[in-house]
Amino acid sequence: MERPPNLAAAIESAAEALIGVLDSATSRHTVSVSPTQLRVLSLIVSHPDTNVNRLAELLDVVPSSASRLCDRLEAVGLLRRVADPRDRREVRLIPTAAAETLLRDLQERRHLAVQAVLDRMPNRAQHELLLALVAFSQAATAAAPQADADSTARTA
After folding, report:
1. 34 near 67, Cβ under 8 Å?
2. Axis-axis angle for helices 63-75, 35-46 (nearest 10)
3. Residue 31 per-residue DSSP state
């Protein structure tokens, strides 16, 4: 089967629509947290034992910028800095229970928003979308090691 010439444009358009659905669900949260701060919390939750330097690497920012983001999250009660019990010179970033609740609620709202869109699609289209997304994810993952190597080469 030949790829339509506008497939990449269609994917971009669908991605923009998805981002709109997710942003709409995100904008309804009650805590005043920026999208960048939400990203920081998500990274910390998905990368346990993260310190400020590791967070800076994940965000591709300088450590002082990552530290200021953490200061703001700590000020609103969403993040704690805790000495690593194995090496007290290391400080780990730990999400608070409030941060975990916020992220869980946000994930649930996003899930419901996406499900509402899927419910407006025929079952067959949902199944085809699932297959296509799995294949896309596998292709993107297969390309990731090369992208990481290219990134390292540029920064070295």
Report:
1. no
2. 100
3. S
The percent of the chain in helix, strand and coil, each rounded to the nearest 5, is: 70, 10, 20
CA distance 72 to 89: 22
Helix (H, G, I), strand (E, B) or coil at 32: coil
CB proximity list for 39: less than 8 A, separation 6 or greater: 59
For 84, phi and psi rounded to 5 degrees?
-70, 125
Nearest to 39 by CA among 63, 25, 55, 53: 55
* CA separation for the pair 68, 5 (Å, rounded): 45
Mean pLDDT, each 10-residue run in order, the chain (156 residues): 74 91 78 85 93 94 95 95 85 94 92 95 96 93 64 44
Helix (H) or strand (E) holding 41: helix 35-46
